[in-house]
Specification:
Elements: H1 5-8, H2 28-39, E1 43-49, E2 60-65, H3 69-87, E3 93-95, E4 102-106, E5 110-115, H4 117-123, H5 125-128, E6 133-136
Parallel strand pairs: 2-5
Antiparallel strand pairs: 1-2, 1-6, 3-4, 4-5
Length: about 140
């Protein structure tokens, strides 16, 4: 049987396993990400707790807005720097740095979405994951 080319690309998900440690909003890595976004003046910060959703690919999504592409990149770069320095964790993957509309940083159990306002309005992640409990983190 011939394997669908698109499905074969999904095998990377097999290597991406959630860690055994259950994260909470009090976890050091979670708090580091949120405080870093606040330091770089990210706006409309929301976390979605996905732990009770069986289909979820992570325990948490952290979503925020940047006002322009320069700030978008600065927030993403600073998150990766601070999480490595303070928590010793390196992102499993990041995407979107070229297009500079939406940068995703994947820490396996936490996925950070840094978005410009238009893509955030268009994709409406909070609505897509409306079964998750959400919490705002704006100072």
């Amino acid at each position: 049987m011939k394997k669908d080319k698109n499905l074969s690309n999904l095998t990377v998900l097999d290597t991406r396993k959630k860690s055994i440690t259950r994260l909470t909003r009090s976890s050091k890595v979670f708090k580091t990400i949120v405080s870093t976004i606040l330091e770089r003046k990210g706006e409309k910060i929301v976390s979605l707790d996905l732990r009770k959703i069986p289909e979820a690919v992570a325990d948490f999504f952290i979503i925020c807005e940047a006002t322009n592409s320069t700030q978008l990149k600065a927030i993403a770069d600073y998150i990766e720097f601070e999480v490595k320095e303070k928590c010793g964790e390196i992102a499993y993957k990041h995407e979107g740095r070229q297009a500079q509309q939406w940068i995703l940083i994947d820490y396996v159990n936490i996925v950070v979405h840094i978005m410009l306002p238009e893509p955030r309005k268009f994709y409406r992640l909070e609505e897509m994951w409306s079964d998750a409990s959400s919490l705002e983190h704006n100072d």
